[in-house]
Every structure is written in structure tokens, then in C-alpha cells.
Write a structure and sequence with these properties.
The complex is a heterodimer. By secondary structure, chain A is mainly β. Chain A has no helices and 11 strands. In chain B, strands 2, 5, 6, 10, 11 and 12 form a 6-stranded mixed beta sheet that branches. Chain B has a 4-stranded antiparallel beta sheet with strand order 3-9-8-7, with no helix packed on it. In chain B, strands 1-4 form a two-stranded antiparallel sheet. Chain B is globular and about 45 Å long. Classes of the chains: A mainly beta, B mainly beta. Chains A and B meet through strand 4, strand 5, strand 9 and strand 10 of A and strand 5, strand 6, strand 10 and strand 11 of B.
């Protein structure tokens, strides 16, 4: 199993600013994922982050808007850049450990 | 491309009734995993079950049971004798396994079913 923590748990940010979300795992994992859950919606995969390589972004998500770092096998960050109210969502970090998919508690972002 | 359909947007039942949540998936791959997650109002995702594409055995865990049928591409979830604490949004999800390197792609989620259990 894997235990995942995220920081911050929630934040309220102003339009035009950026927020970096941290994801920490208690064990080394190869694959980490970032998801977005807009209010009342399902989860949508933003990107896959593997250590030592560039993140792979899903259709509709771009690196300039959602830059991702993966400096080691237990940590990743997602930045939401130049925020607008449409970015208000829950952002979740996830890891794959032997095809078990574990999720962090999420970061609830509100953009005003 | 993968797709997961949860046609039931919202279901409301009275406590102690049985309820089945439907999940239909689409994939061209032969190797994949199916998941069910529960998301209570607090927002965290609670893992309920994982089933791989080669295991069609149904599973029962307490009041929960799952029926996996590859012939109809369905992975339905039944709660027996529902309780108010079962009220949540339930997501069905599909995981595609990449052959190259054996890694896993991200999950494809259905839109979720909001289950309301009335006392």
C-alpha cells in the first residue's frame, strides 16, 4: 500500500496568481498521476509524472498551465499557473503501486 | 480509447433497501483493471474494489457485492440492506495497462452516481 499526503489541503487564491501543490508518498513509486475534479464533476487525468522524464499531459492540459516536477520517487509538485475562477477544483495526486491506485486527500482550490 | 459510463446520475432509496449501481466500460484492450471508489461528502476517495480483466468471479464483501461480466462489459455494484452511511458519490474506473514497460496509464473515471440513502 501507499500513504499519500498533499499540501496545502485547501487554498483560496486570487485570479492571475499561481499555486504549487505538493504530493508526498511514503514509499518509492515509479508512476504518479495528477487529477482534477471540478465542482460536482468526475475526476479527469491531467498528467502522468515519471521520475527522470517529462510529464505526459492529457488532451486539454498543457505544461505552461500545469507544470509538474518529479525530482525523486516519493515526491511531485503540480503548479496551477495564472489562475482563473475556472481552475477552482479539487486536485488529487495518485500513485500506481502494482496496479493498485492510491489517492491523496486532495487540495481544494478556490480562485476568486 | 477507454470509456466508462455510469448512466445513473442519482439514485435515492430508503434505508435497508438493496441498490445496484451500474457501470459499463469500453476498451479495445484485453488487459485492464476495473475499480470502484466511494467519495463521501468529505471529499476523499475511498477504494472499494479492484478487478482484473481475467478474473470474472463475482465478489462479496459484507453488504457489498460486485458482478463483473465481460460479455456485456459491465461491472455492477450492489449494496444490500443500504444504510445512511452509504450515502456518497460512487465512481467506477478503468485502468489500462501499457505493455511497453508494463506500466499503468491513469484511470478513466465514469461520471459517478450520487447515492442518497434516506432514513
Amino acid at each position: 500500500s501507499a500513504v499519500i499526503s498533499q499540501k496545502p489541503s485547501r487554498d483560496i487564491c486570487q485570479r492571475g496568481t499561481s499555486l504549487t501543490i505538493q504530493c508526498q508518498v511514503d514509499s518509492q513509486v515509479t508512476m504518479m498521476f495528477w487529477y482534477r475534479q471540478q465542482p460536482g464533476q468526475s475526476l479527469t487525468l491531467i498528467a502522468t509524472a515519471n521520475q527522470g522524464s517529462e510529464a505526459t499531459y492529457e488532451s486539454g492540459f498543457v505544461i505552461d498551465k500545469f507544470p509538474i516536477s518529479r525530482p525523486n520517487l516519493t515526491f511531485s509538485t503540480l503548479t496551477v499557473s495564472n489562475m482563473s475562477p475556472e481552475d477552482s477544483s479539487i486536485y488529487l495526486c495518485s500513485v500506481d503501486a502494482g496496479y493498485e491506485q492510491y489517492f491523496g486527500p486532495g487540495t481544494r482550490l478556490t480562485v476568486t | 480509447a477507454q470509456k466508462v459510463t455510469q448512466a445513473q446520475t442519482e439514485i435515492s432509496v430508503v434505508e435497508k433497501e438493496d441498490v445496484t449501481l451500474d457501470c459499463v466500460y469500453e476498451t479495445r484492450d484485453t488487459t485492464y483493471y476495473l475499480f470502484w471508489y466511494k467519495q463521501p461528502p468529505s471529499g476523499e476517495l475511498v477504494f472499494l474494489i479492484r478487478r482484473n480483466s481475467f478474473d470474472e468471479q463475482n465478489e462479496i464483501s459484507g453488504r457489498y457485492s460486485w458482478n463483473f461480466q465481460k460479455s456485456t462489459s459491465s461491472f455492477n455494484f450492489t449494496i444490500t440492506a443500504s444504510q445512511v452511511v452509504d450515502s456518497a458519490v460512487y465512481f467506477c474506473a478503468l485502468l489500462f495497462i501499457m505493455y511497453s514497460g508494463g506500466g499503468a496509464d491513469g484511470l478513466t473515471f465514469g461520471k459517478g452516481t450520487h447515492l442518497i440513502i434516506q432514513p
